[in-house]
Amino acid sequence: MTDLTTKAAAIGDGEEQLRRLSIDGDLGTPPANSRKRTHENDLNQPPAKTPSLLPATDVIRDSHTEIIKFLKSHVVHDIMPASGCSIILDSQLRVSAALRIFLEQRLNAAPIWDSPSQHLIAMLTVTTFIEVLLQCCDDENHVSEDIANQTIKQWLELIGKPKAALVTLGPDASLFDACKNLQDYRFHRLPVVEENGDDQCVLFLVDYLGMLKFLLSQLDPKAAVLTLSVGDLRIGAIDNVITCEMDTTLVVVLRQLYQHSITAVPIVDKQGVVLDLLCRADVLCIARENQFTDLNITVSQVLELRNKQTASATVLNTCLLSDSLLSVFEKLSTHHTHRLIIVDDNRHLLGVLSLADLFRFFLGDLGTV
């Protein structure tokens, strides 16, 4: 049995070129904000101007219809990479080895194969790591280094993951179904699995970013809806954004990430100016340096570890309320990021715009469609 299974899947080059999609439509109702600003100091900035009623209502409504139609008419196989591999980890692999693979391969998630049952049983994610750290830390926020010597299956049993069925998609599932599952289960990626009897082959992981890039390739860049601004459309969390400061302890940020089901926390100074961003994936850097035993380290120390391990400088991706929807699409796609920090001209924090926010806005209440 190998600890690491690699499966490659490629799609042909002769697919018919897809038509470009002209979007005119309804992007639905923006979701209620769920993030909260937690630093104690006021931002000392004028409140953002509250947008009036949504402009071009007919344009937005028609866009909603067209995007739903587009997602229902394409399957996840359409966005599968032309080449690449899927990394699958065995449930008996030690966590220390799994974390090393995550770091070396720059993974945020990997399907878990259970040899005794001969089935995929779960997804190991950065959130799994965070859950275990929070569950195993004592009253002084210290974690035993022995947890890294446990197996992946022991970790999953610790947090109750094997009790729930693994959610997967077949290659012929529609992109609409992929969006619905990501939203319903509050996941950020799902394994696309081809099944042949009892055999399971993981083709790739589908996520919002892959679907956005595919959608962007089909959009007419001159479509009216793409000229509307973030502020006009009221996309993302604009109020009550969860934040931290450089001297905030790591355990506090981990609890924020886990309890509020968010993927990143903006780091601000006393005046509310955005300094950096701490993402869930950044937490892995403490594993490389064996720093996970003390969760009292500060955000500043975590960033120092991250920057030490990163060859190139980390870029903070931001946007303005005045940026057009097309500009936001292009920034997310070009920088391969899952979120943008909304700032004013002086880099004061105004909100967070994630890919999940965008798709919720596009599709509205999927349960009624």
Question: Any overview of this molecule?
Answer:
It is a single chain. The radius of gyration is 21 Å and the shape is flat. It has a 4-stranded mixed beta sheet with strand order 1-2-3-4. The chain has a 3-stranded mixed beta sheet with strand order 9-10-11. It is α+β, with helices and mostly antiparallel strands.
Structure, briefly:
With 369 residues, the protein is an alpha+beta fold. Helix content is 31%, strand content 18%. It has helices spanning 57-72, 95-105, 126-136, 152-158, 175-184, 208-218, 230-233, 250-259, 285-288, 299-309, 325-334, 355-363; strands spanning 4-8, 85-90, 109-114, 119-125, 189-196, 199-207, 264-268, 274-279, 318-319, 339-343, 349-354.
Essential attributes:
alpha+beta, about 30% helix, 3-stranded mixed beta sheet, disordered N terminus, about 375 residues, 12 helices
